[in-house]
Write a structure and sequence with these properties.
single chain; 9 helices
């Protein structure tokens, strides 16, 4: 993966940080793209990465805004070169039952979790096709496969993300570009750790392997799919959920 350039959205979060780390360890020059962050959060990000932080650049982007995504891609191209790997990891939740859901809760989640992937893929796909190489990995969710109470917006976006993945994979399969999705289960991230402990224990009890996932469990799969020799895997959804959901 030497000399490849990778962009990871939501790069400052727990899962995004681990994906950045694994890609950097594989030799990529990594851009962690996220909303503008307080200096303390950036320092914590760098401390957690240790020496690997030297291979990672932080950039600001609003993935819900097409022009902001275009500006990001232009800055990365000017500073680092063409983008070989795009990991669409950024996501938000605005949970509510549908009966109580406000229209802004619906649109905010769709705009970030689904439209954000369009906004960035649309900016990089022509370059990947022209160079005959590209790796796109979209982070979906087990809840996009199973549904979840109070998350019609989130589940719709995450299920739609894999439909997007399969369609784009068909469009570019003959051009050296692969497009895959990864569907994590419940992982030890800040978001999951906000779940009250009794409920978290109930969730863990339903996971056949008996524990929450670690961000590294997801990051290893992303790094594998992003590798140059993973060119025969495209249009796939890889579930990484400890056996919480099994399909056939």
């Amino acid at each position: 993966m030497n000399s490849t350039v990778a962009v990871v959205t939501g790069g400052l979060g727990g899962l995004g940080r681990e994906i950045c780390l694994h890609l950097a360890q594989a030799g990529a020059r990594v851009i962690a793209a996220d909303l503008a962050a307080e200096p303390g959060r950036i320092e914590a990000f760098k401390r957690a990465l240790g020496d690997a932080a030297q291979a990672i650049t932080i950039e600001t982007v609003d993935i819900a805004d097409f022009d902001s995504c275009g500006a990001l891609i232009e800055r990365v191209h000017d500073s680092h070169g063409a983008i070989d790997i795009l990991v669409n990891n950024a996501g938000i939740t605005r949970d509510s039952t549908l009966r109580k859901m406000r229209t802004e809760q619906w649109h905010e989640v769709i705009n970030v979790n689904l439209s954000g992937t369009f906004n960035l893929c649309r900016q990089v796909i022509d370059g990947m096709i022209s160079r005959g190489f590209g790796r796109i990995v979209n982070i979906s969710s087990v809840n996009g496969q199973t549904g979840q109470f109070g998350q019609t917006n989130y589940c719709a976006a995450k299920a739609g993300l894999h439909g997007f993945t399969m369609a784009l994979a068909r469009e570019v399969a003959a051009k050296g570009v692969t497009v895959n999705s990864v569907s994590p289960g419940y992982c030890r991230t800040d978001l999951v750790l906000t779940i009250p402990e009794p409920l978290r224990r109930e969730i863990e009890a339903r996971i056949p392997v008996g524990r929450l996932g670690e961000p590294s469990d997801i990051a290893r799969v992303v790094a594998f799919l992003a590798a140059p020799d993973a060119g025969f895997i495209t249009g796939a959804n890889i579930p990484v959920n400890g056996g919480l959901f099994m399909d056939f």
